[in-house]
Amino acid sequence: MTETREISIKVPVLARVEGEGALDLEISNGQIQNLKLRIYEPPRYFEKFLEGRSYTEIPDIVARICGICPVAYQMSAVQAIESAFGCEPGPWVQAMRRLMYCGEWIESHALHIHLLAAPDYLGYGSITEMAADYPAEVRRGLRIQGLGNEIIRFLGGRSVHPVGVRAGGFHSAPKERDAAALRLKLEAALADAESLVRWVAGMSLPQHGQVFTSVAMHNGERYPMSEGRIVSDQGLECSAAEFEQHFREEQVSYSTALHCRLHGEPYLVGPLARLNLNHTLLPESIQSLCRESGLVWPSRNMFQSIIARAIEIYFALVEAICLLADYQPDTPYQEIKPKAAIGYGCTEAPRGLLWHRYEFNDRGDIVSARIVPPTSQNQARIEQDIARALQSFGLEKSDDQLRLQAEMVIRNYDPCISCSTHFLKLNVERC
Amino acid sequence: MWKVKSSKKSDSRPRIAVHKFSSCDGCQLAFLNAGEDLLTLSQLVQIVHFAEAGMVAPEVDVDIAFIEGSISTPDEAKRIRAIREKSKYLITIGACATAGGIQALRNGADSDAWRAAIYPSPQFIESLATSTAIAQHVRVDLELWGCPVNSLQVLSATRDLLSGVVPAPVRDSVCIECKRQGNVCVMVARQEPCLGPVTQTGCGALCPSHGRGCYACYGPSENPNTTALANQLRMIGLSDQEIARRFLFINNQAPVFAAAAEQALTPSLLQGEGV
C-alpha cells in the first residue's frame, strides 16, 4: 500500500538555547530527506568593525560577541595579540588567566546544566518548574553558578563583560585578603560540586552511541584551557597558526553562521570532546569518582555531554583552589610593543575551541580579523547528530516526540547561537 | 500611573516577558545570574516569555516586557511593534536596546561591502543597513543603560513597578561614584584617558577601581560636558581620531556621544571653548 501523508510541525521558538535558530525536517518514505539547522541570529559584523581599531581595544570589543562566554573571547584575543607582538606574560598572569577561565567554565556549565539541559531529562519546561520538585538541586546549581561568577569578578570586576583583562595581563592585581576569602568559599563548595557529578551521572539519559571526531586542545600535562596544540582522535595535531590549513568555514544558504569542517568533515568541540581527549589528565580524585559512578571515557554518547560539564565544573573548582593557594599580588601586566605582524590565539571556551587571527600594522591597529567560534564548528556535527539520533529514535514517532528529541540533541551542544547568532522553528514535512 | 496589576483573574501575579533582539545575550544574564532572587522573582510574577529560561509565549499580553538587543533586521522591526502592542510597560535593558549597541558601528559604513567581506554568498543574509535603538521604532517607558545591565538594575525596576513606584534610575556620572568610593582619579594622577566625567554610573566605577579609564559602557550621564572632556583628552596627548573613537564605542549611537565624536573630528568647532 502506498500512503502519502504530509505533516508539518511548527515550533516557533526553541527554548533553552542561547541565540536564534530554526530546524527544518523533511521525512518521506520513512527516511530523512532534508535536515537544516537554520541559524538566523542577525549578523553583527564584529570582524569588520574591529578593523582600524587599536589592539588595546580588542578585549573590550570581542567580549561583546557573547555575554555567556566573554572571558573566552578575551583569552583567545590576548593570546593572539601577544603572539603577534612577541610578548610573554609571566607565570602569575598565566595562572590568573587560568583561574578566570575556571570561573567561566563553572558559570557557563552550571547555567547550561540547570537552566537549559536538566529540565529535558527530568521532564520540565523550565528551571522554575523544576525548582518546585528539586529545590535543593536547583539551589545547589544556582550557588555553583554564582561562585563561577564570583571568580570572574575577582579578576574582572563583573562577570559579564569583565573589565580587568588587557593585552599583556591584567589592569590590576587583586588583594591578598580577597583571594583568601574567595578560596575559603570555593573550598566550602567542593561537596556541592561532587554531589552535582553524582546527581547528573545518575540521571536516566538516552543511550545512543555514534561515531564522531573529537577535537580539542591537548598538552599532555594538564587539562587544557589556554595551552597546548589542537588535536583530534583521528591523528590531527596542529598549532593555532596552522588552523586554516585543516579547518575550513563554508557558508550554507540557510544560516548566518558559517559551517566549519575539518578536512571536509563534521567534528565535535566542547566538553565531551575535551574529556574524550584529556580525561587522563584529570586529578585522580575525579577519575576515581568517574569509575565509582560507572563512567567510561572516551564516550560516544552525546547525551553524556551534561555529565562532561558536571565533571569539568568539579575539575575547575579544584583547579581554582590550587591556583589561589599562596596567592600574592604581582606585577599585573607586561608592556607591549606593537609591530606589523599576524597573531593567532586558540583557547577552550566552555563550548569548545575558539580561534582568533589578527593582522596588525606597525602601530598595532587591526588590518583584518577572523574569529571562528565553537558553534560554527559544531553546526555540521549537530545536523549529522540530529539525523542519526532521530533515525535511531524512530521516525514513526509523533511529531511532538520528534521535535523534543531534536531539541534535546541540539541542547547537548549548548549552542551559543549569539556567538554566531532562541528561536527554533521546526518544520517537519512528511510524504 | 505605574501600578502594575494583573489582568488575569485565575492568577493574580503580574506577567513579565524577556525578549531578545540583536545582542550577545549578556543582559538576560541580569536575570539568569540573579541566583536565589530569580526564584523569588518567579514567585512574585509570572514569567510568561523568556526563551533562554524555557518559557515561550511571545504572543501573550504582559504587564512588563524587558527588551534586550537592537533592531537590525526587517523581521526584528516587525516583531518589536507586535510586542509593544501586547505590553503595558516596555523597558529596554542594555546598550543594544537603548542605543543600538556596539554593532551600530556599522551605521554609516558600507554594510553591503561588510556583508560581502564576511559571507561568500551575501544574498542569503538578511540584515538592515543600520542597528538602531528600540525607541526609534516604538514607545519605550523606561531605559536601563549598561553593557551589560546588572541584576540590581532589572530587579529594582521590577520591584518599583510591583510597588506602584516610578523607577528612577540614577544618572550621576562615574566621577561622582569614584569620589564616593575614594578612588584616585586615573586621569589626573596617571594621565589615563577616562570617559567617567560624561558617563553615567551604575557599574560602580569599575574601570577606575581597576586602575584603568572608563570606556563609557553605561552611556551618557545627565548634562555631560563632552567638549571639556575632549579638550582634556587632547591635553593628555590623544589625537582627534583617538578622541572620536572613544566616543564611538559601546554606545556610539547615543546622540550625545555621536555629536561629541563629530565635534572632535572638526576641531574648528572647538575654538573659543574652554576646559
What can you see in these coordinates?
The complex is a heterodimer of chains A (431) and B (275). Chain A is α+β, with helices and mostly antiparallel strands. Helices cover 44% and strands 16% of the residues of chain A. In chain A, strand 11 (352-360) and strand 12 form a beta hairpin. In chain A, helix 5 packs across helix 6 (135-156). Chain B has 12 helices and 5 strands. In chain B, strands 2-1-3-4-5 form a 5-stranded parallel beta sheet. In chain B, helix 3 (74-86) links the parallel strand 3 (62-68) and strand 4 (87-93). The interface between A and B is large, with 68 and 63 residues.
Provide the fold topology.
The complex is a heterodimer of chains A (431) and B (275).
Chain A: E1 21-28, E2 31-39, H1 46-49, H2 58-63, H3 70-85, H4 91-122, H5 127-133, H6 135-156, E3 165-166, E4 169-170, H7 176-188, H8 190-201, E5 215-218, E6 229-232, E7 237-238, H9 243-246, E8 247-250, E9 259-262, H10 271-278, H11 284-292, H12 305-324, E10 341-349, E11 352-360, E12 366-372, H13 374-393, H14 399-412, H15 417-420, E13 426-430
Parallel strand pairs in A: 1-13
Antiparallel strand pairs in A: 1-2, 3-4, 5-6, 6-7, 8-9, 10-11, 11-12
Helix pairs in contact in A: 3-4, 4-6, 4-12, 5-6, 6-7, 7-12, 8-12, 13-14
Chain B: E1 15-20, H1 29-32, H2 36-44, E2 46-50, E3 62-68, H3 74-86, E4 87-93, H4 94-99, H5 111-118, E5 142-144, H6 151-162, H7 174-181, H8 186-190, H9 206-209, H10 226-235, H11 240-247, H12 255-265
Parallel strand pairs in B: 1-2, 1-3, 3-4, 4-5
